[in-house]
## 1
Amino acid sequence: MAIDLNELNSDDRYRTVAMNQFNSITAENIFKPVYLHPNENTFNWVEADQLVDFCETNNKRLHGHTLIWHNQLPSWIENFEGTSSDWDLMFKKHIQTICTHFKGKVSSWDVVNEAFEDNGELRNTIWRQKIGDSYIEKAFVYAHESDPDAVLFYNDYNIASKKAKRQAILELFNSLRQKGVPIHGIGMQMHISIDYPKNKKIENALTELSDDGYKIHFSEIDISVNPNGKDIEPSTELYDCQADKLTAITKLYKEIPSEYQYGMTFWGVSDQNTWIRTFFGREDYPLLFDDDYNTKPVYCKFKETL
Ligand code: 9MR
């Protein structure tokens, strides 16, 4: 599950669920550059290390999200001035200081997040503008140099629904792997809804990625029951559809060879914590637990399917 450290520290219901119901943790925000690397020469480990302690004490696997992304960047990176080799050095130091700090504590990293557009073109991020297309390859090499045991992922959304995006991702990473670049897996975020994308598309994506030898992490699951932002009430019917969707994708996930199943991570615990409500400003109930931390039908059916 994705954890919000403030909730973990302040809400006993949240903490109990986090401790008892999940075996793998991703920080929803505090491992992102704006939190970990607020100034060029300052790294802030305080919150992240608290989460490391929580994971060690409670025997949870910790997944790092994310080293390189175009969002949640500190302003000093956005305003950094220098040649492309200055950028490369800064980028390398960012990645390597973080990977070295968490070596042996973080099992895996989303090394690069959301580098592709849905149409398959490379997103024109600040990293690409300043370092060039090779920033993706370099990020994996640098991360691996600092922590050779970490499992390294590329992470993105719409991998099942957008074929052009998936093909572009596979084309790039297959060619990098042929050159020996250490990329071990692909994170399919799975911000989906009760009827989109169709299960067949999810199945095709799982087959293509695992056939090409990538571990697959369902890295940010939530299942919207109200993607179009209508006025709704949570109903048994909607909750059952949500339970059916999660059951279907879980079964598909379990069909890929076990060595390629990295895990399934939910992007939050209770519906009251979901990013969807804040980000889209709509009513939605996408997670396993309701606003009062009661289990929902989707939780019960998921447990039966596991
Ligand atoms: O859930 C995260 C939310 O709290 C942040 O405000 C937001 C900032 O962009 O990022 C959210 O998490 C994103 C994740 O890091 C990458 N994939 C999409 C997620 C939802 O936006």
## 2
Amino acid sequence: MDKLHLDKALTPAGWRDGVTLTIGGDGRIASVVQESAPAGVARLRGATLPGLPNLHSHAFQRGMAGLTEVAGNSDDSFWTWRDWMYRFVGALDPDDVEAIAALAYVEMAEAGYTTVGEFHYLHNDRDGRPYADPAELSRRHVAAAGETGIGITLLPVFYAHSGFGGAAPNDGQRRFINDLDGFARLAEGASAAARAYARGGFGIAPHSMRAVTRDELTRLVGLFPEGPVHIHVSEQVKEVEDCLAAHGRRPIELLGDTVALDTRWCLIHATHADAGERAAMARAGAVVGLCPVTEANLGDGLFEGVDFCAQAGRIGIGTDSNVAISASAELAMLEYAQRFGSRRRNALAPRGASTGRTLFDACLAGGGQALGLGAQGIAVGAPADLVVLDTDGIAFAARKDDAILDSWVFGPSRDAVREVYVSGRRVVDGGRHVKRPAIEARARKVLERVIGA
Ligand code: NGQ
Ligand code: ZN
């Protein structure tokens, strides 16, 4: 058994000064003892947090970060961004996908995320035909996670249509498309790959109410009666309008009328949920997967988070388009969006509570539920996923306990994450992933070729 001594740790029971963890061969915490640092045990200085789940990623989009920020001739929107993204996706081969995913996962670890939910829809070869192994690109994502050491819940996407009412897919979507039989074959290979990795998990992801008919959704959920189910829903006003036109109901209403929403479900964005839809999601115990930096980048609009959290609605965060991978920036954007909307400060925290702590705890629990992770936190039975903040930095001067979290999220604390452990293994040291140089060099070659062309 390995041991680590943490000078200061955020545990489920609150902040503790001086705890020694025993870590079993399975990478899980076997004991937590409050004591002063024992001789001969590796010591983590600073403040140690549990690793956060990143519940929503499209890893390949990391490769186009910063390339869609030039104003076009017509009005730029989510939909013009999507055309750009479709062109980028058309150029990637399996090695490229794996190289970019590994870079994204390195950056996630450096940011303090220890598990990623990969909402993976790039399945087919460039001509739209399945690869010889239909799970080829699913496997590549598990391989990228394995190389970087982070956990992954692989969420292969079922995608069949370009719009409501079962509209035929367009050419830009050819690499995503499946029928239910094809998807079942793909999912078999994908789940085998995920389960062969010690930190792998598996769920399914109907892409959106646009891309899946109600009948397909019902059958899909019937085929996979267990594990997480993620779906993009109600992100754009046009999507709500098109749904109302086709079905006379809003997207989350339509979803709830089609399947039984419960704690398996993670509704990504849910930006334009109305009051009734928010109440239904909260009642179901489903997680709303917010991706604040991407939602700002894409001009999605504002989720009414104050109202949802007041109903004990469950939330988690995701890096989605991976345009900027930072857990602290994601949490800050989550709160700031609500401040813009409500014209209040500390909009998401109950009276007397720290906003940083409230959001961190909520996203640890919500992200863990959404990714099917089981026990979490610095506690017996949970994986030893640890994020060490370097509190020697001036950003943390005289900060104690929750003020450390608030200063990490809202303060001038760039590069505060010094070390990260996943399953008790150190993957980030001195703020850098231990494999960054090689993974970065490989990704650079890919990007120079793909974007330079
Ligand atoms: C995606 N991304 O699947 O990558 C989507 C865009 C779509 C976001 N929604 C494509 N942020 O929704 O049709
Ligand atoms: Zn997404």
